[in-house]
Amino acid sequence: MAAPEIVTFGCRLNAFESDIIRRAAAGLDDTIIVNTCAVTAEAERQARQAIRRARRENPTARIVVTGCAATLSPARYAALPEVDLVLDNEAKLKAESYYLHPPVAGATGPSLFRERERGFTPQQIAPLPHAGEGAEGRSPEAGEGVRARAYLQVQQGCDHRCTFCIIPYARGPSRSVPMPEIIAQARTLVEGGAHEIVLTGVDLTAYGGDLPGQPSLGVMARRLLIEVPELPRLRLSSLDPSEFDDDLWALFADEPRLMPHLHLSLQAGDDLILKRMKRRHSRAQAIETARRARALRPEVAIGADLIAGFPTEDDAMFGRSLDLVEECGIAFLHVFPYSPREGTPAARMPALAPQIVRERAARLREAGVKALAADLAHRVGTIGEVLIEKPGSGRAAFYAGIVCPPDVSGIREMRFTGVAGGKLLGTPL
Fold it and tell me: Using an 8 Å Cβ cutoff, are 414 and 428 in contact?
């Protein structure tokens, strides 16, 4: 291998951090770095499978395991015979971690390295200069790096404790990147060819709570657009409907460069289940958020996360989550079969049979496929701007994938003429 191979699991933030890892570990030969996710047991299973496959196919390679799963259970991954080095979420972003790795006292097996034993400092966050210089805008959905679109981390960690979620224990408390640093990195990304920047974080709508003056996400995004007028498109990643601030709504209403696409962290459509999840929004608030977004920007597309088969969920409760897909008009649905995570309160709640969880996840996914088909069919005949991400493929402002002629580039206005394979067909004007 001429350079380290990076295998990424999980969220947009992990994809963003994999770009930092690529620079931090640049120059390492015969090395495979697995950036793990801990959000579900299935994500961990896939990571372990990837580790075993990497060793089979590359018997002489150095295999490094990092990410949320490795941060939460370093000894478990260090004990795998295929693994040479384990790094936590802080160490993985530092170049010296890949060259200097003293073992943790008492560790057995492969070298186990953690930057600090005691967790996180309040302002610790990914080194944004590396991200700005090297980020390729990797799309977790497509798994491909593209220069046209870049992810920019503006927030890290989470102060909330949803009963199903282990991520705050892996990522630490919420901390925000100061606005001047965000603006500087955005300029670097635009100079490097990015036409769209996606702001990302673990709890994006918590942005600014730890900064002087507590600037909100809406305030920060508006200033970014003012200070970087050459940026054509700004998109937001997952948002908590309970934390929308007035500035964010105002920006969504009056700034066309903020894309008409909201991805909501909903998780359930039943109020009792939401309470047992320790979520901060209600079913009515979720529906009202989608309604208000459409009133302000009729072209908006709504995405959402939903968990299928949460403990104690009965048929009626599940039905309310299923109905939420239509009531909110969720075109881009991410479904997560509930997976108990050791150390979370939900893991101690009465669990449903795995078959029921799988069946409910399948029904939610089917509803999501139908909702996307309906949304795309409704847009046939309309005109919109498309960002070309690679030859023959682009993305509309409302997030839908676009199939287009291979000889167009940049941002092009197109007429949407049909639907194929869950994407719109675009004809340049």
Answer: yes
Q: Are residues 135 and 53 in the same domain?
A: no
Q: What percent of the chain has pLDDT over 70?
A: 88
Gap between the Cα atoms of 64 and 52, Å rounded: 12
Of the given ranges (77-81, 137-141, 368-372), which has the lowest mean pLDDT? Answer: 137-141
pLDDT higher at 208 or 95: 208
- Final residue in a domain of this structure, among 351, 377, 403: 377
- Mean pLDDT of the residues in the chain: 86
Contact 286, 306 (CB under 8 A): no
CA–CA gap between residue 94 and residue 260 (Å, rounded): 36
Cβ neighbours, 10 Å, residue 214: 11
HSE value, Cβ hemisphere, 13 Å, CA-based, for 52: 7
CA distance 84 to 65: 8
Q: Residue 98: phi, psi to the nearest 5?
A: -85, -5
Packing angle of the helix pair 315-328, 283-296 (nearest 10 deg): 10
Q: Residues 77, 86: contact at Cβ < 8 Å?
A: yes
In a domain, 230, yes or no: yes
pTM for the predicted model, two decimal places: 0.81
* Distance separating alpha carbons of residues 110 and 228, to the nearest angstrom: 46
pLDDT for 13 = 80
Give the single-character DSSP code of 91.
G
Contacts by residues 18-22 (CB-CB < 8 Å, ≥ 24 positions apart): 18/138, 19/131, 19/134, 19/135, 19/136, 19/138, 19/145, 19/151, 20/93, 20/126, 20/127, 20/130, 20/131, 20/134, 20/135, 21/66, 21/92, 21/93, 22/134
Q: Compute, in degrees rounded to 10, the torsion defined by CA atoms 277, 283, 289, 291.
A: 150
Q: How far is 272 from 317, CA to CA, in rounded Å? A: 8
Tens of pLDDT, residue by residue over 183-200, are 999 999 999 999 999 999
3-state secondary structure of 401: strand
In this structure, the answer to whether residues 198 and 56 fall within a common structural domain is: no
Who contacts 213 (Cβ-Cβ below 8 Å, separation ≥6)? none
Structural domain including 152 reads 128-377
- In 3D space, the residue among 87, 89, 65, 71 whose CA is nearest the CA of residue 14 turns out to be 89
List the one residue out of 396, 399, 400, 406 whose CA is nearest residue 420: 400
